[in-house]
Design a protein that fits this description.
alpha+beta, Butyryl-CoA Dehydrogenase, subunit A, domain 3, 3 domains, 12 helices, single chain, Butyryl-CoA Dehydrogenase, subunit A, domain 2, Butyryl-Coa Dehydrogenase, subunit A, domain 1, 4-stranded mixed beta sheet, 15% strand
Length: 400
């Protein structure tokens, strides 16, 4: 297996690294650069986004005008570098949920749908959200339990139901909605687009969370007669589960790419502090206990990178990469929490304070084991593959 990256991807990585170092990291220590929910302020964001566009570092997940693409493997390299800063991904228009929404619209949208729904997200004019998760007894990790209904009436669907924990909803203009259109055992869900200004729906509340929030928060929505034209359906009626599969696998993996960047940042902060902090006449970095903590994290990060790159390779080669993505998701989500916790421990009170971004990352990290499928769900998926495949679970792909 060849783990080398192309000179073009390495050049892109270096440009991103320089941008983050010079323009984004300095803002983390400026409290005026934060909005009320712990993210980068809109004024600073728009300034940096303009710079990222000018430097050709914008929306790298989408195809270039000439049809070329850096692929999922190239994204793994670039996204990891972007998220050296807590503000990085949104500056480059590579943050969730826009990231996953753009990728799925590019892959399955008609030309008319791309022009109307994708292009404004890609150019940064609007933000987006995907409305899928519901309060009990509706769909959570199991989309087959979705209860929000979309009833066909002529050339429109009429929507009734509720969604919650919809990331970015308060700031979103374009929404992907997953709703039930029949009681068929296989093709009962449909994905469709709607605009925030359409009547028949509302945000009932912005749900407070433990950690810092994405722009637009996490909201509860109510639908009581929203009308969506049939031309806004993605892939066709009854294809909602397929749409979610196409969207969620790459989106889960891009989370992992970004979380690896944050994990490395935790090690960076801990290593720097351990090198200069002394206690009882000994530098922290010279204590075997600290060396073991940092060495263990270094190994865990490298394992995560290999899992992510294998899953990215599988996606680039046309696979849904279900088990590869699940492995990466479980490992990297837990790694991020461990990295933040360990770095705080090494930094002591400094790590628990707001003098570093470690406490921000720690609060953010706890959601990683929940978003886009809880650890337990992904482990169930892996066991299902193991049961079906037996010893073939561990097969190497054979070259043609």
């Amino acid at each position: 297996m060849d783990f080398r990256i192309s000179p073009q991807i390495e050049a892109l990585r270096l440009r991103i690294a320089a941008f983050v170092e010079d323009h984004i990291l300095p803002l983390e220590s400026d409290r005026a650069a934060y909005d009320d929910h712990g993210n980068i302020s809109d004024a600073q964001l728009q300034r940096l986004r303009a710079m990222a566009r000018d430097q050709g570092l914008w929306c790298l997940q989408l195809k270039r005008p000439d049809g070329s693409s850096i692929g999922r493997m190239g994204m793994a390299v670039c996204y990891e570098e972007m998220n050296r800063s807590i503000f990085g991904p949104v500056v480059f228009n590579s943050a969730a949920p826009d990231d996953g929404n753009m990728m799925v619209l590019e892959q399955i949208g008609t030309e008319a749908q791309k022009a109307r729904w994708l292009a404004p997200i890609a150019d940064g004019t609007v933000r987006s959200a995907i409305a899928m998760t519901e309060p009990a007894p509706g769909g959570g990790s199991d989309p087959s339990m979705i209860r929000t209904r979309a009833e066909r009436k002529g050339d429109k669907y009429v929507i009734t139901g509720r969604k919650w924990f919809i990331t970015g909803a308060e700031a979103a203009t374009h929404f992907i909605l997953i709703a039930r259109t029949s009681d068929s055992p296989r093709h009962n869900l449909t994905a469709m687009m709607f605009h925030k200004d359409q009547p028949g729906w509302r945000i009932t509340r912005r749900i407070g969370i433990m950690g810092p929030e994405e722009h637009g928060g996490h909201c509860e929505l109510e639908f009581d007669g929203l009308e969506i034209p049939v031309e806004n359906v993605l892939l066709g009626e009854g294809q909602g589960m397929k749409v979610t599969q196409i969207r969620l696998a790459p989106a889960r993996l891009t989370h992992c790419m970004r979380w690896l960047g944050l994990s490395k940042r935790c090690v960076e902060i801990a290593t720097e502090y351990a090198a200069r902090r002394e206690g009882f006449g000994v530098r922290l970095a010279d204590r075997e206990s600290i060396q073991m903590m940092l060495g263990d994290l270094a190994m865990g990060i490298e394992i995560g990178r290999l899992l992510v790159m294998k899953a990215a390779w599988a996606l680039d080669n046309g696979s849904f990469a279900k088990k590869e993505v699940s492995m990466a998701k479980v490992h990297v989500a837990n790694l991020l929490h461990k990295a933040a916790d360990t770095a705080i421990q090494i930094n002591g009170a400094r790590g628990y304070s707001t003098d570093t971004v470690l406490e921000w990352i720690y609060r953010y990290a706890r959601q990683a084991r929940l978003v886009d499928g809880a650890d337990e769900v992904h482990k169930m998926v892996l066991n299902r593959h193991l049961t079906d495949e037996g010893r073939s679970f561990w097969n190497w792909e054979t070259a043609a």
